[in-house]
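PROTEIN SPECIFICATION:
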Amino acid sequence: MSEKEIALITGSTRGIGKEIALRLAQDGIVPILNYCSNKITAEQTLEEVKRSSPETIAIQADVSKADEARYLVEETIRQFGHLDILINNVGPYLIRSLFDTTDEEWHRMIDGNLSSAFYCTKHALRSMRTRRNGRIINIGALNAEVPTAIGVFEAPAYYIAKTGLMMMTKYLARSEGKFNIRVNAINPGFIETEEYARFSEENKEKWKKLIPLGYLGAPGDIAELVSFLISEKARYITGAIIHVHGGMWV
């Protein structure tokens, strides 16, 4: 059992999720890491986070599957006694027209980006409601609320799932407020994670020209906002969907 606040972060051994874990560890929160299959990367990240948070553990679970998502949440609560913060960060990405998207790809996008958040949130709420305290942050996508984004990036299955996640955020903010549970969402723009390494410098330069600030974001930009939203400084903020995109869609 831990007296510190416990934060479960899905998909948190690399990219934005990893940066969130490192930032929360600096805040004195115990981040619980989650990974699906890459144990080597998980162990490396765990070692790094433990420098600031010795209590941190990593739990393997494919949160796109209901039983594994439930195990992840329940194992966290079993080991630490409670769960204060849930960051629904995991989410696969696919560039493919709707016509060319296979049934398997469709389900992977919906289950990975939307169902995973539903499964984890449903089980996390049991602990949060009992304690009458909790914070949930859903990580969306570049202006998931704007329909034109679907056409621009030819990733309809992904954006449809992320738009559903925004609707879930608003619903939960209303339904869980009476339990003192705050629910917000963050929609990142072009963030330089490991995934962007596979794109050419030419593409990156094109993206920069679309952004008024003139540069791509960093995972730390998202982590800093998460740190603020789960703090007491943001105690009156719930149901907010905050876009972090350098002004791309203003």
